[in-house]
Fold:
Amino acid sequence: MNKILSVSLLTTSLLASSTGIIHAEEKPVKEPKLKQTAEYQQLQTLQGQSKELNIELKAQGEKNKAMWDSFRGDIPQEVRDTVKAALAELKPLREENKNLSAQLKEAKQAKDKEKVASIKAALEANHQTIEAKLAPIADEVAQVKEGHKNLKEPLAEVKPIRDAKKANKDEAQQVKQEIKDIITSAKESFKNGDAAWQSSLNDAIDLTEQLNALKSEILSQKTTIYETLK
Structure:
């Protein structure tokens, strides 16, 4: 009886062990997270380089700003801000005057005396409003105008580089948005088990390399502007 019981216990034990081994073998391998993939890590490396370029761009931008300020002369920031705010407030009136001037030309061609008189009155009213707004800050406006006059020659000298830099900045902004959209799409694909995440991340990698190349070119252009103005 004891022998039969011992054999029964041994058999049960072996079956339990075998079942555990089977379950252990059947347990699925845990998939890596998106951030653990080689593609994502490569992208992060490039993004790190992009951040370093941002630091360099900011530093060079501050040097360039100081250089431009030296051309403007000793105009306090408060004065520039005051004039800028006043001009921004008057911008709608200036735009309206442009439209009225075009209408005045048409009215004169049509020999519509009544309309000509009406448009001239509107233009004069706007002109008086603009003068009344700028009169209290006439000295500040004069300072800013003088500063702009000092900038005319150096601006003309570096205009081609500045235009090219602006084009690169616009393109970089577009590429940056594309990267953001692609990464969002890759994350969604990975979450849903769609293999498209891999090609999406590869696209993001290519675009980030393109973005870094644009930033490097912009940095070079900023440096060239600074060296030209020195």
